[in-house]
Amino acid sequence: MVRLEEYEDNDESEWNEYVSRSKNATFLFDRRYMDYHSDRFNDASFLLYDEDDLVGMIPGNISGSTYYTHQGLTYGGVLCDVEMTAELMVDIFDCWTSRLTEQGLDNIVYRAIPHIYHTIPAEEDLYALFREDAQLVQREVSSAINLNEPVNYRDGREWAADKGRREGVTVEQTDHFRRFMEVEAELLKERYEEEPTHTPDEMELLAGRFPDNIKLFASYSDGELISGVLVYETENVAHTQYIADTDKGRDLHASDVILDYLINEYYTKKRYFDFGISTEDGGNYLNEGLAFFKEGFGARSVVYDTYELTLG
Fold this sequence. Notes:
Blueprint: E1 2-6, H1 12-21, H2 31-34, E2 42-43, E3 46-50, E4 53-58, E5 61-63, E6 66-69, H3 86-102, E7 107-111, H4 124-131, E8 135-146, H5 155-166, E9 172-174, H6 177-192, H7 200-209, E10 214-221, E11 224-233, E12 237-245, H8 247-251, H9 254-266, E13 272-277, E14 279-280, E15 285-286, H10 288-295, E16 300-310
Parallel strand pairs: 6-7, 12-13
Antiparallel strand pairs: 1-3, 2-5, 3-4, 5-6, 7-16, 8-13, 8-16, 9-10, 10-11, 11-12, 14-15
């Protein structure tokens, strides 16, 4: 019989140790990452035990009468290790949904972890969701390259990278996170009237906590940052969290040069290079130009799915 224990601050070491050996978790589930914005969310995470053995964890928060896994993360769900089985996952869902029903909650919004982030197959939760009659309510389309079997570039992307190099664009890893996030904010404001998910202060904080996972690659002209790609690096995946250019960077095709370097030189030992989603409105709108840009590097579609499960 699975036992659920609510996460408390003194569980941080046990939580982070389990994240490090999970087959589907990334550093985003480390409490040092999750808790940087803990003031914005009512944390309701669980540790899952079979007798005294920790067999899984659920990062989550509650808003109103809904349990989310997790509103502060791109993806979430039941974190598990190599011992997880389909039968155990079904038992976990039975106990978990009963617990939330007893707490008076109405539904669960479940952000499944895309398969490219799994170190070994880890879709027991998708089966359990099916058993619980959960409904697929959101499907975002990301674009990823299988670096073991890459697809050829479109001519336009290869041309742009070559032209940028001829113009003298070079790439270096840097710690100028604050300046880069200012460029990103200017770009999002200009194009979409939106703001980045992270502030410059937050990105500096997180990059300092996770220097092996959060990396910035940039191009400069006369000492000024003109383009950058901020990467979230996990065991299998290099994920472009942000890509931004100044006007001069766009003129020089600087981001093409950076991306070409990352794909063909820096990250060749990773399994996937993930550009992130190109959809809006829960997946109902596809930004065709953005998807076309990513697909020009040989990326193809991977979905980020969200399910809703009615309780009671």
